[in-house]
Known about the structure:
Layout lengths: L2 H22 L14 H22 L6 H22 L7 H7 L12
Helix pairs in contact: 1-2, 2-3, 2-4
Amino acid sequence: MRLNDLEAQIDMMNGRIDMMESHLGIDNEMEQEINQVDDKNYGKMGIEVEGILTMLSELTNWIPGMESSVSAVNNRVNTFESNICVRRNGNENFSELEIKFIFILHDGRKRYHQ
């Protein structure tokens, strides 16, 4: 796989996250509450993005210069996973499945490749 292919995958993943954020009305500071989650739609997207993250992590080992890009993408995911768990306190409307898949949302709008 070429460097351009990896950059395209990063673009696609960031685009999906942006689309999900926009649909849920989440701003850059994550100040708005998540009012509604659709298990089917977000679950499907979550599985796709998880697959992309796995591929990106594996490719990092043999494509020079992409380590920081993949690391930034993974940090984006990990940060939101923490944020959504904190926001869930006191709100029992979220199921464990919802928590598993909405972790891929994040407040950043950054692009992680050059």
